[in-house]
Amino acid sequence: MTDTAKEVLGESQPRGKSRSQWSDVWKQFRSHKGAMMGAFVLLFITFGVLFGPYLWDIDPTKLDIRNKDWRPVYMPLFSCSWTDLCIPPESLERMKYGWSHPLGTDNLGRDILASLIHGGRVSIAVGWVAMILAMLIGTAVGVASGYVKWLDGLLMRFTDLVLALPLLPLLLVIMLLFRDALRATFGPELGVFILIVCVIGATSWMQTARIVRADILALKEREFILAARSIGTPPMKMVTRHLLPNVLSPIMVSATLGLATAIITESAISFLGLGFPSDFPTWGKLLFDATDRIQNFPERALWPGLMISLVVLAVNYIGDGLRDALDPRIRGR
Amino acid sequence: MLTFIIRRLILAVPTLLFISLVLFLLLDLAPGDPMAQMPLTIPDEVKQKMREALGLGEPLHIRYIKWLYQFFVVEPGFFLDWLFGTNMMEGTQRVVSWQFRSPVFDIIIQRLPQTLWVVALAYAVGVIIAIPIGIISAYKQYSVFDQAGTLISMIGFSVPPFFSGVVVIVIFAVKLEWLPSIYDTTHEVKDWESMKIQLKQMIMPVMVLALQTTAQISRYMRSAMLDNLKQDYVRTARAKGLSEWSVVMVHVLRNSMIPVVTVIALGIPSIFGGAIITEQVFKVNGIGQLLITAIQANDIPMVQTITFIFAVLIVLFNLIADVLYGVLDPRIRYD
User: Fold this and answer.
1) DSSP labels, B202-266
2) Does A287 touch chain B (CB under 8 A)?
3) pLDDT for B333
4) Complex confidence, ipTM
5) A206 in contact with B at a CB cutoff of 8 Å?
6) Interchain pair B160, A308: CB under 8 A
7) Looking at the complex, does the CB of residue B41 fall below 8 Å from at least one CB of chain A?
8) Is the pTM of this model over 0.90?
9) Which of the four, A147, B40, B52, B54, has the lowest number of CB atoms within 10 Å?
10) Given an 8 Å threshold on Cβ–Cβ distance, is A316 in contact with B154?
11) How far lies B23's CA from each of B30, B99, B305, in Å?
């Protein structure tokens, strides 16, 4: 044996940097520009709505009728006199704006920046909780029908039935029917929160269930499952130790899609006036309230709408990046 | 093929029955009372009779079966009567709206043209835009056009119609004042001038809905084209000296259209759901707006009928998509 070989064998640590699966995934994810940008935007908005209320501590429900209808502080930027598309200087003089309300106030004098921050908390919380609920139901149904043969036909027929339901009209009907009952038990805000989250979660698990089932069926034929069974692994351990880690990547990808649709659905319900109570801001609710006076105050509709679109766009790009990063055939190319 | 269609049609019956039962049971829980608006001076026994006249007060299963009978026998019967000028169904009870006190289907027929004008046209426009975008994006993969197409379809996926609608209203109706912000359904098209007004008021809702369709369909078209462009038969076609145009537009396109056509068929019912929001933004008084007002006014027969029609559409277009797939792709055989 040569000296170098002895030297190498004697070392307790490998020479090169070790590569794990997740570090590879992270490396691939980082190379996807859109996904990194999306992650940055999502983190920024999430931290903004989490810690924003400590920095900008105006109560979003506080009425201040003397300071109503303030315009955003950037209004002078749109002022000029050579075209009628921008704001003429004489009407700029009549507007109220200033740094005490950077995005202005609404028709009851509530600060729009504070409403946006608090509304974002609700919208993002609804999105996350509903998405987690949908993933739990979807994974449970998918694993059960993929792993337990006699449940397969039953559960998949049920999934098909739920897929054939007209979901948006049904969501609206359920919101209307159970809103008052849950409000009475849990209070106006928590009741509606529980209802929206449950309803969105219960109507968006089907795709995940189908994907998980298909993956489990394919995994069941693989040798390592046969090996695991031959050494007597109990069924529960089979699922948690061998099957679930291997279906994690499709679940993560559909989780990003689920987060995006949950945020859009919540906003849509609020926009149709069937969501949270009127003094409780969410992005969809703010957008809905702003549409009546959009001719005079377009910014009130633009900011919440922009927030919804930005978050959803960011989440979709993250999903795109995750799909590439988690696919071992694309990774490393 | 025929046996497959018949089998699927028979299978659709329990599905629809299940959905109608779910809808019926859900709406039965509704807290509203159609008699709540009546004056308090009406004595209780009269109120009870009015309730019975509306079909309430009987046990649940009887009401369900009666509703099924009305929906599947009486209403199609009235449709046939209207079609052929007969009156077989005279004297039978139709599904009556509590809000308008007239048959539900009459109101739906009134509202349907508005929805179809906007929704169907938007879907067609979306598909017509999406297919060339998908073809070019796939043929020039990773080019600037492809990247821009990806970005636009990402935006189409992510920007909800209640925001894109509001944005186009702010830009084109409020700032530029080119287009009206509200869709006027009483407007009649008589000559070229009124046609121009109609087109003007349709542009915004149609484009907002079409953006979403385009985003989806162009992605499907692109990936289907990419799958096919790598196939051996494409190399064969090129090797025998066909022009690039006929290789791509005849050989590849026809094969790529198979999955896309089924996706287009599957998307038709969901566009009605999306129209609920677009109609609300542009104040179009179509089916979606009818559903929203019915939900708010506790008009249970109306809500039940419209949601069930949506469910029928979903089941029907699922079936159509499956059959189309078999017709278009000879490799698929349902035996």
Assistant:
1) HHHHHHHHHHHHHHHHHHHHHHHHHHHHTSHHHHHHHHTT--HHHIIIIIIHHHHHHHHHHHHHH
2) yes
3) 66
4) 0.80
5) no
6) yes
7) no
8) no
9) B40
10) yes
11) 11, 19, 9
